[in-house]
Design a protein that fits this description.
It is built from 24 helices and 22 strands. By secondary structure, the chain is of the alpha/beta class. Among the domains are: 78 residues, no CATH class; 205 residues, P-loop containing nucleotide triphosphate hydrolases (Rossmann fold, 3-Layer(aba) Sandwich), CATH 3.40.50.300. Strands 7-8-6-9-10-5-11 form a 7-stranded parallel sheet. It has a 5-stranded parallel sheet with strand order 14-20-19-17-18. Strands 1-3-4-2 form a 4-stranded mixed sheet. Helix 20 links the parallel strand 17 and strand 18. It is globular and about 90 Å long. It starts with 6 loop residues before the first strand and ends in a 42-residue tail after the last helix. Its main location: nucleus. It catalyses: ATP + H2O = ADP + phosphate + H(+). One of its GO terms (biological process) is RNA splicing. InterPro entries: Aquarius_insert, DNA2/NAM7-like, DNA2/NAM7-like_C, DNA2/NAM7_AAA_11, P-loop_NTPase, SF1_C_Upf1.
Length: 696
């Protein structure tokens, strides 16, 4: 099997001719001459010639026109909108070629976008091939699957296996035969509408078989008669002789624009392609009328219909025997976040099909991950430390020197925040939008700095506590984090843009208890987007991250630099860390990050006069005298309490005064309150929780 594919349709990978030329800096891009005055627009078909020197490296590019698919808005194909970098294009090219492809993607470098574009290009260039997608978790799989749904891939060719599909942010069912059956009914309704528009008698929209006869004898014959007279038609006749005008009455009118005979004929062909696609899908759905049991239908969907199948490693392991017995086959396998997959879990998806005649059908194996982030979770310490079982196959390959494509530009975090973990990678720059987009130019309202570490001393002589073995909590940090969240909400920050992270499960439960006590039920403040651990939040991001480091006696498992990289790389615009600075800055492994953190003041610097969003630029850093410096956690709690009271008072004063009207006497309860009278606001209680109350 050849490693490189000569000519390939790159579909919507490139946004323009300029983007194409920028994507191959080491090649001479030669565009095929188009008609004079006509701009070269994507999609492009590329023939890449690799040589030893610059002169022999060429990319022969030819643009081609996509066929008209019909007159409706949903007929317009979905297109990629991401301007891929040259390194990302190199990864996409490598993934489309045969063999093993390994892509190392630091945080925010678009690993998922690269994976989705590889899948899309394989789908369009090799429609007969099937691709298996595997991830370590349902959450990672759903994120990948949702991005696939945004591209030009037919929904009937997508299959999501397992029970994680409930988390998909879509109303469509990609996991069972229900989607196919509902689509079949909708298509048969369209056939009935077409029958009515043509004035054909009989019940032709009852089954897929009757619809196929209707297409062959009524629809196709009319089209062939119409198409046969094209050479003799005038411009007006292309529209007047078109046999399906009544069927397309609900399409944007006028159906034919009348600009030229060629353009109107292209519209007519697009309309027929729309009709033909209805009957093509019904022909594919016909076996579902013959297969009666749900198991047989699901097996047919898996074996024959689906082209892109997604599942977790766990599902692959549980169902391997059933899949092999059903003669499940695939040509390509893509593993996302493969650095978090155990070695044995990596091999299981490769063994879901048996070789035929001594040959394995597998053509491509694409592994995408980051070995500098968290490894697979091994709870048995003996296996983890002495058997090295936490090393993934992806990490092993990297250490053995297997060639990789290293993505080298991040587009997630501000440059200043990215510097906290940039040192861990060979080369990691920023994408252009990091310095161009308005949200990255603007400062964080109410804060002097875009990132800061806040030193949290013991509260009442207590730092970290351990109510249960390995169940670490820190009450002072929990109160400080929640008070900071409440402060942000009072300034106008949306709750869904704020996430509170911690490094221990015990602290996670304590944070949730404090939030429930302080503000969880208060409609003015509410809950943050998530309160979870750093390990659970890998692969996700948010605009503003509040991080609690918990430990005050020992560094704990944050000593693992991979966990530190994950913790520092979750924020896009603002990162506020609360911990015992003297403990962590003396840890050798963490020095490159904490050296940058401690260059800024160790007390929280606030600008409470600002509101979200602010008009202040990051470059306009206010002086120390302009900031309000918070000395400790009790001071922060008291300040937020006072700020809340003044905010509520201002809201009450802004309400219009009610005009007194005569009303009936309202029933009064024993405590003097009027029955049914709504409570305007609820005062925040700021007594400090007893740590024992937050035990799990």
């Amino acid at each position: 099997m050849e490693k490189h594919i000569g000519t390939l349709d790159w579909n919507d990978t490139f946004l323009s001719e300029e983007h194409l030329k920028h994507s191959f800096p080491d090649h001479d891009v030669v565009m095929e001459k188009s008609e004079e005055g006509v701009e070269n627009l994507p999609p492009f078909t590329l023939t890449i010639e690799d040589g030893e020197d610059k002169e022999s490296k060429k990319v022969l590019a030819q643009n081609h026109q996509m066929l008209n698919r019909g007159p409706y808005e949903y007929n317009v194909p979905k297109k990629n909108s991401i301007k891929f970098t040259p390194t990302q294009v190199e990864a996409i090219r490598a993934g489309t070629n045969y063999g093993l492809t390994m892509v190392v993607g630091p945080p925010g470098t678009g690993k998922t976008d690269v994976a989705v574009q590889i899948i899309s290009n394989l789908y369009h260039n090799f429609p007969e091939q099937r691709t298996l997608i595997v991830t370590h978790s349902n959450q990672a799989l759903n994120q990948l699957f949702e991005k696939i749904m945004e591209l030009d891939i037919d929904e009937r060719h997508l299959l999501r296996m397992g029970h994680g599909e409930e988390g998909l942010e879509t109303d469509k069912d990609f996991s069972r035969v229900n989607f196919v059956l509902s689509q079949r009914l909708a298509l048969l309704e369209e056939v009935g509408r077409l029958q009515t528009s043509l004035g054909v008698q009989g019940d032709v929209s009852y089954t897929c078989e009757t619809a196929a006869h209707f297409y062959l004898y009524q629809v196709l014959s009319r089209w062939e008669k119409y198409a046969g007279g094209y050479d003799t038609y005038s411009l007006e006749q292309v529209s007047s002789e078109f046999p399906f005008h009544p069927f397309f009455q609900d399409a944007p009118q006028p159906l034919f624009k009348g600009k030229s005979k060629e353009s109107d004929w292209e519209i007519a062909e697009g309309c027929f392609r729309h009709i033909k696609r209805i009957f093509t899908q019904l022909d594919e759905f016909r076996p579902f009328e013959l297969l009666r049991s749900g198991a047989d239908r699901a097996r047919y969907l898996l074996i024959k219909e689906a082209k892109i199948i997604a599942m977790t490693c766990t599902h692959a392991a549980l169902k391997r025997h059933d899949l092999v017995a059903a003669r499940f086959q695939y040509d390509n396998i893509l593993m996302e976040e493969s650095a978090q997959i155990l070695e044995i879990e990596t091999f299981i998806p490769l063994l879901l099909q048996n070789p035929e005649d001594g040959f394995n059908r597998l053509k491509r194996w694409i592994m995408i991950g980051d070995h500098h982030q968290l490894p697979p979770v091994i709870k048995n310490m003996a296996f983890q430390k002495y058997s090295n079982m936490e090393q993934s196959l992806f990490t092993r390959f990297v250490r053995l020197g297997v060639p990789t494509v290293d993505l080298d530009a991040q587009g997630r975090a501000r440059g200043s925040i990215a510097n906290l973990y940039r040192w861990r990678y060979k080369k990691l720059g920023d994408l252009s939008h990091i310095s161009q987009l308005e949200q990255y130019k603007m400062a964080n309202a109410g804060f002097r700095f875009d990132f800061q570490i806040v030193d949290v001393p013991d509260f009442n002589g207590v730092g970290e506590s351990e109510p249960n073995p390995y169940f670490y909590q820190n009450l002072a940090e929990a109160e400080y984090c929640v008070a900071t969240f409440m402060y942000m909400r009072l300034l106008g920050y949306p709750a869904e843009k704020i996430t509170i992270l911690t490094t221990y499960n015990g602290q996670k439960h304590l944070l949730r208890d404090v939030i429930a006590q302080r503000c969880g039920a208060n409609p003015l403040i509410g809950q943050p987007h998530k309160v979870t651990t750093v390990d659970r939040f890998q692969g996700q991001q948010n605009d503003y991250i509040i991080l609690s480091l918990v430990r005050t006696r020992n560094v704990g498992h944050l000593r693992d630099v991979r966990r530190l990289v994950v913790a520092m790389s979750r924020a896009r615009l603002g990162l506020y860390v609360f911990g015992r600075v003297s403990l962590f800055q003396n840890c050798v492994e963490l020095t490159p990050t904490f050296t940058q953190l401690v260059q800024r003041p160790l007390r929280l610097h606030l600008l409470p006069s600002e509101t979200y969003p602010t008009s202040r630029l990051v470059a306009d850093s206010p002086s120390r005298e302009d900031a309000m410096i918070i000395p400790d956690m009790p001071a922060m709690c008291q300040f937020v309490y006072d700020l809340y009271g003044s905010s509520v008072e201002m809201m009450m004063q802004s309400l219009p005064k009610e005009v007194p009207v005569e009303t009936e006497e309202k029933p009064v309860e024993d405590d003097g309150k009027v029955k049914g009278q709504p409570v305007v606001t609820k005062e925040i209680e700021f007594e400090v929780l007893d740590g024992s109350a937050a035990k799990e």
